[in-house]
Fold each of these.
Amino acid sequence: MTVIKAGGAEPCGDGGGAYEAWRRQSLRARYAYGFVFFATNLLAWFVRDYGARALRGLHHVPVCGAGDSKCFQSGGVLRVSLGCFIFFWLMFASTFGTRKLHEARNSWHSGCWILKSLVYALSIGIPFIIPNIFIQLYGEIARLGAGIFLLLQLISMLHFISWCNKRWMPDPGSNQCGLFGLFLSTICYIASFAGIGVLYFLYVPNSSCEFNIFNITWTAILVKIIMAVSLHSKVNEGLLSSGIMSSYIVFLCWSALHSEPEAGKCHSHMKIAKDGDWATIVSFIIAICSIVMATFSTGIDTKSFQFRNDEVQLEEDTPYSYEIFHIVFAMGAMYFAMLFISWELNHPARKWSIDVGWASTWVKIINEWFAASIYIWRLISPVVLRNQFVNDEGFVPHRPTV
C-alpha cells in the first residue's frame, strides 16, 4: 500500500515491497529507452536512404526545398540525430538529481510513456523546421559529442576490465589458482594473435599496402607491450585484464581497416560492394545493433562515471544514475549521426553503408592508439606516482645491486 503525496509516492505498510516494485520498474525502463534509441537509428537510416522518395511531403517544408541534402541524406541524419539528442537531453534535465525511488521524477523516468511518446515525436519533428545553417552547426558540435562518447565508452571498458580482473583473478598474495580467469586470458590472447593473422590475410593482399601493414603491425606491437607491462614484477596485473584489452584494440584495428573506402586496392575479395546484397544488409544490421549495444552498455554502467563509488546503496535509492544514463544516450545520438555520415557533414553515403571513409578510419585508429595508451598508463601510473612520491619526500627508491 502506498500513499501519494506532493513529493511523490511514499511507502506505507509494506514499504520494502513498494521499493522493490519501483526498482524493477526502473530497471525495465532502461530497455524501453534502448528500444527508442534503436528505433531512432532505423529512422535515421530510412530518412538517409529512402526518405527522398518515401517522405515527399517534406519537400514542401520551406527549410527542405526540392533538394535531397537538406532534409535527407546527411542532412536528414543530422536532423533525426538532433531530435534524439533533444529528447534525451530533456530526459536528462527532468531527472537530474533523482536519488530516491519515491520521488515524482522517478515515476517520470520509469513511466508516463504516452506523454513521453508525444515529447519524443515533437523532439524528432522540430529539427525538420530548423534552418539548415543551425543543422550544420549541430553537425560540427556532434563531432565533439561523438568524441566524448568514445571517451565514455573507453572509461566503461576499463571499468569492465577491472571488474573482470577482480572477479576471476586471485589476489597476488593468495593461494587461489583462478583457473577460469586463466582460461579466459588464454582465449583472449589466442583471439588477439589469431585476429592479427586474419587482418594480414584480409587487408594485406600485396606488399604495396603499407598503410594497412603499419597499422596491423603496430597493433601487434601494442598487444606485446600490454602483455609485457602487465606481467612486469612491479605491475603484476595478470593476464586477464591485458588479454581483454588486447582483444579490444585488435577489434578496433579491424574496425578501422573495415572502414576504408572500398575503392582502395587493399581490401579482401570477401568485401561485398553491391547495394542491397544480403551480406551487405546483414552487415549493416549488425553494425546498427553494435551501435545500440555500445550505447546501452555504456549508459547502464553509470558507476564508472561517478566520483564516488563507495557509497552504501540504500533500499530507497535509485538503482542507477538517471542523469548519467540519459546524457550517455544523448552523446550516443551524436555518435550514430557521425557513423551514418562517416564523420563528414556533406558525405554522400552509399545505401546500406555505415561508417565508411578515410575520416572514419582515422577516428578509429586514433581511438585504438588512445585506448592502448590510457590502459598502459593505468598499469604503470601506480609505480610511477609511488616513486615520485618517495622522491618528493626525500628518499631514494631502493635499487637492487647487480
Amino acid sequence: MQKSILITGASGNLGQAVAHKFLTEGYTVLGTGHTQAGLEKVKMTSMDLSDEQATQTYLNELCQQHPALNAAVLLVGGYAPGNLPNTTGSMLREMYKLNFETAYFVVHTLLPHFEARGGGHFVLVASRAAFDAKAAQFNVAYGLSKSLLIALAEVINVYGKDKGIRCSVIVPSTIDTPPNRKDMPNADFSKWTTPEAIAEAIHFLFTDAGGQLRETVLKVYNEA
C-alpha cells in the first residue's frame, strides 16, 4: 500500500522541499497551502488551519479519502519580532494562533484516526527561541508560541505511548530562503541550514532507523 503523508504549509519554501522529498520517496503527499505552483503532484487544499471547525471538516474528509494516512508534518506558522517591553497581547494572540493553534487543531482531529488505525507520527517545527531566552529576547511572542509546540509534543508522546503514536520536533536555525537573504543581506548564508537539509532530516524520522527514535528533538542548526 502506498504511504500517505499530510504536509501543512506545503507551498512555503520549507514546505516545498519537504513535499518534493516525500514525493521522490514514493509517498502520496496531501498538502495545505496558498498555491499549487511547483506542487502539481501534491493534492493541495487552500484553507485556514486556525479555523477549528473548517480544519476538522477538511481532515475528516481527508481521512475518509485516504484511510492509510498516518503521518503529518505541520509547517504552518509565522514570525513577528518584538522584545519584552514591546510585545503586546495582540502580538501574543497572533503568534499563538499562527504557530500553535494551526498545529493543535490538526493534531486534535487526526489523533483519533491515528489511534483507530494503530499508530501515526506527527512532526512539529519549533525554533531555537523556544529553548533559548537569548534567542527569544527579540521575538518574545514568537518564541513563547513555539515553546508550546515543545510542550504539545511531550503531551502527544505520553498519550501515544503503547498506541503507536509519536511526535517528533524539528528545530531549525535560520533557514536559507530568499526572504531571509533579503532581510539579512550581510549574513553568512553558508552557516544557515537549507530547506533541503531539513527535509532530509524529517524524512529520516520515517525510515526504519528513524522509526526507532522516540521523543525526538532534532536541532538542524548547521553553523548558525
Amino acid sequence: MKNVIITGSTGMVGKSVLLECLESPHIEKVLVINRHSLEMQHPKLEELLLPDFLQVETIKDQLTGYDACFHCMGVSALGMSEEAYHKVTYEVTKAFADVLCEINPGIVFNYVSGAGTDSSEKGKIMWARVKGKTENMMLAKGFKDAYAVRLGTILPEKGIKSRTNWYSYMYVILSPFFPLLKKSKNITTTTKFGKAMINTLRFPMSKKYLTNKDINELANK
C-alpha cells in the first residue's frame, strides 16, 4: 500500500490519476495539492491548498511519509512568453522536486510532460525546450526513481472533462469515434493513464521517458 501526492488534480490529467488512485487497492492515502479546493470527500483523500506553488517550502513538513509524487500540473503555452511559461513549468516543478528530494530522496517522482518534448533544450519550439529542461532537471535530481511521461492524445473517461474549452469541444466532436481511437496503441485514455502512473510504483522500469504506447502497456500489467 502506497501513499501518494498529486498536483494538478483540478485538471483533466491530474483528475484521471486521482480517480484511479482512489479506486486502487494499492494506494492507501492520496494528498492533493491545489490552488483551489476540489470540494471532494473520500476516506483516502487529503487536500492542501497552496495559492503560490513556488512557496512549497512552507508546507514541506506536511509532505513527509509519501512514496510518490505524480506532478500533473501544466498549462498551455499558447499566448505565453517564454519567461512566463518557464516560471509555471520549470520553476514550479523544480520547487517541488527540490523539497521532496530533500525530505525523502526515496520517493518516486513522475513528471507529466508532453509528446514532442525537446531534451536538447535547443530546439525552435519554446514549450518543447522548457519541458525538456524540466525533464532533464527532474531526472538528474537523485530520486529513487523518476519518469518523464510524454503524454500524447488522451481520451476522457469516467465523466472527466478538460478545462480547456477547445479541447472539450474537440472531444464532443470525436466522441462517436472513441471506440475506434482506443484501439490505437498510440492513443491512451484517462483510465489507462491513471493506472499506468500507479504501476510505475509496482513495476519499476529502466525506461525513463514514457510515451502513450508505454502508458498503455504499463496500464495492463
Amino acid sequence: MRRPALRLPALLLATALLGGCSSFGDLLGAATGTAAAAGSGNPALGVAIGVSTNAVANWGWRRLTRRWHTSEQEAIALAAGEAPIGEARPWQVRHTLPIGNEQGEVRVLRVIETPLATCREILFSVEDGEGAGLTRRWYVTSLCRQETGWRWAAAEPATERWGSLQ
C-alpha cells in the first residue's frame, strides 16, 4: 500500500538537501502553495499560503543562524578577553544540532585603552576540515569590554563571514 501523504514531506526534505539552506524557504513555499492551490482549487489561496510559508521558513532560518553566529562571536570574545597579547587560545562552539559547530584559534594583537572604553584588536581563525585537509581562514576584528564582558565591536569580518547578520 502506498502512502501519498508521506511523499510530499520526503520530497521536500530531499529537495531542501539538494538545493541548500538558502533555497529551503523558497522550495517549501512553492510546495505548500502548490498543494494548497491543488487541494482547494483556488490559486489565490495557494499563492497566499506559499508566500506565507516562504516568509516564515526564511524568518526561522535567519533567526537560527543569527543565534549560531552570536554564540560563535561570544566564544571568540571570551577566549580573547582572557588571553594576554600574542598568546594563541583555542575557541569552539558546539550546538545542540550538530550543524554549524565551529572552532579555531584567537590571538590578541593589541590592547587599545581610551577614557571611553578598553578594546582589543584580535586575529581569529575558523577551521575547516581535519588532518591533512585542515584549512584555516583568518579574520581581524575588535572587541570592547562592556559590563557583561567582552563584546564584538566591528562589523568588517561579520560582513564577509556572516553576511548582514551581525
